[in-house]
Amino acid sequence: MLIGYMRVSKSDGTQTLNLQHDALLAAGVTPERLYTDRASGQKDDRPGLATCLQALQPGDTLVVWKLDRLGRNLKHLISVVDDLPQRQIGFKVLAGAGVQIDTTTANGRLVFGIFAALAEFEAELIRERTRAGLAAARTRGRRGGRPRKITKEVLLKGCTKMALPPL
Questions:
Q1: Across the beta sheet with 34-38, what order do the strands follow?
Q2: Which amino acids are annotated catalytic?
Q3: Digit-coded pLDDT (tens) for 49-80
């Protein structure tokens, strides 16, 4: 039996599961056997993934649209995928353009290792670019975070009798 897992990184509604949903259905996964998360792939504690992994029985195959949907951390990816054969569970990745991974074969295990390393590399590049962008913004006087609701002037106007620390 095919069990599908889908994930998007943001829970604010700006990302949808439609593309993954359609691909998993086309691969033969039934709608009642689809599990979802709306959380970063960096997080190991995703309730949808935990439920999906618990639902897998010997002879089942876990199907994901792309490898980075299962996780972006090489250690986590390998621990999840290494556990599956011990439980007699297959793993398939529908990566499009004919690049499918099936860990029930030696070729599939090799390709999985390569793509897992690439997924972790991509995630690290994103972190590096983010840190560099934040540092560049700080040098230009920009500070991140939410803007203050109350300005210093409004606060001082309402509290003329109290000595306030500088903001």
A1: 34-38, 2-8, 61-64, 90-94, 100-102
A2: 9
A3: 999 999 999 999 999 998 888 876 777 777 78
